[in-house]
């Protein structure tokens, strides 16, 4: 069977084990069913930006040139929430869009994805964000009213812990045991006084199990532009990574928009 279309971030649902769905062209593939099977993914040299334009190269976050420099979806506050200004009525690129996106409940969370990390996400993105990062466990540290407040808390926490997922360790399943409730207790003191009222009393732990038959021992990241594709046995999926038997791993999200042919 052959499926074609531009790659998009896999959709997920959190059950006993995460379920992954990849939309490709008119089809939706239930990826868990492909684990244990040999598949082939081939890049066909075309990229569709989220605006619909077809291009041959993209900027950071897979935006075409126009979008990267003009669209609010590519604005500074996307990667750096602390730069959010919509709550002050100050426009970056499109105040209406920014108000909708920034002035809504956000979470500052602690997660264990092959190490302790802090992150920010919209409340509505929970637990999707944690799954996309390959976390095995997460806890809410604070629930804020807007993106700026969450960003400021994260900036303070970054002095004490990472805000990045060590993806090489994550895709090899090199997990460590972390007591997130204990880490949260510790982290509260680093939340700036003015934002302390946002600290959440919810100590519930979200646990996440990924469909992985076996973890690769070595991991090398596939770059579709450079390597053109991959043909190998899919042994698991974690975060937005497809894990292959040989140790090749493909970050689906970072290749969003690339047109591929997928043969099963
Ligand atoms: Zn575009």
From TrEMBL:
Lineage top rank: taxon: Bacteria
A Pfam family this chain is assigned to: DUF2797
Protein name listed in UniProt: DUF2797 domain-containing protein
Provenance organism: Phaeocystidibacter marisrubri
């Amino acid at each position: 069977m052959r499926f074609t279309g531009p790659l998009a971030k896999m959709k997920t649902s959190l059950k006993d084990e995460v379920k992954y769905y990849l939309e490709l062209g008119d089809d939706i593939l239930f990826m868990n069913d492909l684990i244990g099977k040999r598949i082939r993914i081939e890049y066909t040299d075309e990229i569709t930006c989220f605006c619909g334009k077809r291009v041959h190269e993209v900027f950071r976050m897979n935006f075409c040139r126009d979008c990267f420099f003009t669209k609010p979806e590519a604005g500074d506050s996307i990667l750096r929430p602390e730069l959010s200004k919509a709550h002050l009525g100050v426009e970056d690129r499109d105040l209406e869009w920014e108000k909708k996106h920034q002035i809504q409940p956000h979470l500052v969370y602690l997660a264990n994805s092959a190490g302790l990390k802090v992150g920010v996400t919209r409340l509505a993105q929970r637990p999707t964000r944690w799954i996309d990062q390959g976390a095995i466990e997460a806890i809410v540290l604070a629930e804020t009213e807007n993106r700026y407040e969450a960003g400021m808390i994260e900036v303070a926490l970054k002095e004490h812990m990472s805000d990045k997922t060590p993806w090489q360790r994550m895709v090899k399943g090199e997990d460590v045991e972390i007591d997130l409730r204990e880490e949260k207790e510790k982290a509260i003191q680093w939340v700036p006084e003015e934002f302390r009222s946002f600290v959440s009393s919810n100590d519930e732990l979200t646990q996440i199990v990924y469909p992985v038959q076996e973890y690769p021992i070595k991991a090398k990241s596939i770059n579709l532009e450079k390597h053109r594709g991959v043909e190998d046995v899919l042994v698991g999926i974690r975060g937005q990574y497809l894990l292959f038997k040989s140790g090749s791993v493909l970050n689906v999200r970072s290749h969003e928009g690339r047109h591929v042919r997928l043969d099963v």
